[in-house]
Amino acid sequence: MPAVALVVMAVLAAAAPLLHRRLGRNTGYVLAAGFAVTGALLATGAPTVLDGGAVTASWSWLPSLQVSFALRLDGLAALFCLIVLGVGTLIMAYCPRYVGDGGRTGTVYGLLTAFAGAMLGLVLAADLVLLYVFWELTTVCSFFLLATAGRVAVAPARRALLITAAGGLALLVAVVALSVVVGSTDLSTVLAARDEVLASPLAWPIGALIAFAAFTKSAQVPLHSWLPGAMVAMTPVSAYLHAATMVKAGIYLLMRTTPLFAGQPAWSALLVTVGLASAVTGAFLALREHDLKAILAQSTVSQLGLLVAVIGVGTPTALAAAMLHTFAHALFKATLFMLVGVVDKETGSRDIRELSGLRRVMPVTATVTALAALSMAGVPPMLGFVSKEYLFQSLVQADVAPWAGPVAGALAVAASALTFAYGVRIVHGAFGGPVRQPDLYEPSPAFLAPAVVAASAGLLLGPGIAWVRPVVTRAAADVVPAGEVPQFEFWHGLSPEVVMSAITIAVGTALFLRRDPVDRALQRLRLPDGAAVFDRAHDAVLDLGSAVGRPDRSRDLAPHLARPLVALGVLGAVGVAAVGGLPERGPTDRALDWPVLALLVLTVAGTVLARSALAALGLVGVVGLVVAVWFLLAGAVDVALTLLLVEVLTAVVAVLVLRSRPPRLPGSDRPRTVLAAGLAVAAGTGAAAAVYALTGRRGISGAGAWFLDNAEPQTGGTNVVNTVLVDFRGMDTLGEAIVLGAAALGLLVVVARRAPEAAPDRAARGRPDGTGGGLVLQVAARVLVPGMAALSLWLLWRGHDEPGGGFISALVAGTAVGLHQTAHAFPGLPRLLRPTSLVGGGLLLALGTGLFAVVRGEPLLTPVEVPLLGALGIGSALLFDLGVYLLVLALLVTAFDRLGGGPVPAVPGPSSGDHREVAATPDVPSRQGAP
Amino acid sequence: MTAAVAVGVLVAGGVFLVLQRGLLRVVLGFVLLGHAVNVLVLSAGGMQRRDLPLIGQGDPAAAADPLPQAFVLTAIVITFGITVYLLALVRAGDGDEDAGGDAGGDAGGDTGGDGEPDVAGRVPADRTRGAR
Fold this sequence. Notes:
The complex is a heterodimer of chains A (931) and B (132). Chain A contains 38 helices and 2 strands. Chain A has 931 residues and is mainly α. Chain B contains 4 helices and no strands. Chain B has a domain at 66-92. The chains are: A mainly alpha (931), B mainly alpha (132). Chain B: It is a multi-pass membrane protein.
């Protein structure tokens, strides 16, 4: 049944914007009815709950964490459900006459209903994780509801979100810690494990985190600054979220966790201190404000403070008193907000310095406001009087220290006297004094009705406390099962509390009578502005982040690249310190190595020193060739072949890129050169030392030997490297080929296709001066390209047994494409070679081959016999290799297509100015030669 | 020993180039570093056995370790892919990143030591481009 209630709320929330499209602002009445029905639904569980039972429902949610979607309707949950749905019904019935018909109203209705659902979930949750989720949902709903107020709400909404979300994170940490200590996230189990929790070293952090979470949500000093800011939201939102319900979530959390911490001196001291500080501060600030909503916001801080303090006392009476006052506060504060909304709507102002004498033109509004204010001020016979009596009674029992009770009582009286004063101030400010706006009139009964109902409840339930008693008694018994819960009475003799109430009223009256001097004195006070403090802290955090990230925003590449090098150096130093006792080095060098090495040193030195881009490029290519020879000497023929082809292709692509760039490389300043040289020498030495230390000291690796032994028997291939690539480590190869495909697609995005260089103009092809390459190249291409294509396919075919394979053959094919493209001045690609088709086809082929094995019930990429082609000697390995081939080819084709073609920029000459201006226009007839 | 020296030379050259101005040199440095790592991986397989790892050709006991070869082979192709991509970035960045002017100027305060302007009139033109 609790779950049905949540589902109903979710459906209502989703339907609200749709209903709004049909019904406009009157949607509120439908939603009010929906809230009432949900309440009735939950009320069917009342007999069970009042008998001391609970209605539960549970579904498995995160079984691996033993977290369940568990709901539990017990006394405390029932009390809060009553508040959420009761006040919610009234607010929804109030909304239609308050809101406009504008576009945002549907959103507001949806969010308010979603919030009500989240709040119900929060109080019904029987699992701590679920409770946390709903807790955050209320925060999010509150944020979006604030945001509907538009631009003015940006700063307050951010403040509210950051503070309450920080509390939410604290709650999450507390939940995790509790589940670590108790081994369960089930609420009842955790609450029953008081001894375990208190004995663990995490007891203090858990208590502090829970208190922090509650303080943020319930706007306790010094985290209260978000609540007054939240008043930018429309009045129904303020009344519902920021007075009656959401801010009570913190109170609910403290009540729920009372079984864990009640009676702990630190817990009591913290809650009583913070609560009373908030109570007095809030009341003080409320008396200073002139905006009716601001007064009410500060008043909420104050009243919540009293509740926190009383919960801190922790006795059964205190808890029961807190629950009763939570209920009373929801009633009178929501009423006052609704009436402020009425006044605001009718007069266009909320400032008590501008309002005056409304009692004459709006007598009903004035009366209802007075009733609610009296309840807030704790004047008999209102419900607020009864609850405040019990608050006083509980606070004087505070036993943290011998003097704690009297001090707490005195502070509570002080806060309440201030409350009385600002309560009267609200009524007098708006409704007293001379009439200034005589042509106003009473709002429609429909607008006033919800407030009248709530105020009347506050009036009737004081003497009729017996009607509230069962629920509150039951709720208190849930939290303090062992203790004896008092039976609330409207009048319980001439007790000390009555005297305290009398003092409250007397002092409050005096403050009101001397209101002008009091106001002047208060206005002179310079108090720290919580919002400003928060904003400064927020800005400071942003500045800190900016300072920390500044090195990473440098546009120079060197600092970015130097850091990993330095980190690598540190790692190497650690390695040197850690590694010791190396085995003997075997004989690793051959005589032929030395000349190759000498050539390598020369070419690398040449590359480093080259000032011309073309020279540097050529030398890098030569370095690659030397390295390829090195690989050949090391017995890696496939690797050498691959590198050879890659070097050729790299050179071609690099030249294509270089065409549009200055022929000289940029110079460098001396400090940078010295620093770079230093780092380079250090890195080179370190790398050489590491290689010397860590290689050549053992025989062949176990894996290597295994591959040599098993390659042929298992795959039928004799080229072990190729079998490793396509058979044994096919998954790696697939990943690598996909990287190439991704690079191809990246190229398509990064470099836009240049305008085809006079593609339709056949006469332009083969210009001797352009990239057309001339007749010789064209003839060469015509002769060579078919041969290269055939060679490529042959290499692919034999790759399994002899040097070759997908990578190498694709590089050959790519070279052929490059030759053809260069010879014909980049005429664009034939349909067959469209990069996207090649990437897609390659991926599909490689993945499909792999998945074929899965279909047959074997691991991904297991080599299998291909049904028809097997007879021709084509295995799945070849098809897989073909996929790799297509992906590699895709990259090459893309590179030629995107980097080649387009107009060739002129070699910069004295007249060329900004050559890119030339480059930007595709059809400039005169070009000044090619690189 | 020779492998160690080869790796050292390649790393030193690569690091030096990577720390220079201008994306093209960085790309070239990157290529050299790729070579260095490939030589390293191959030498990690052991430089004592250097015969081709082809079954049926030569003495299997002298055949080189095929596993690092497979690693290096794919690494070369991947390095190539990344190099092409980097070169494309060089090309795409033409006009933003040129002649080292902007590459070194993170706050606009980098006026000195910008290298010689290669052609009269180019540097001011680039400056205005970069500032846009």
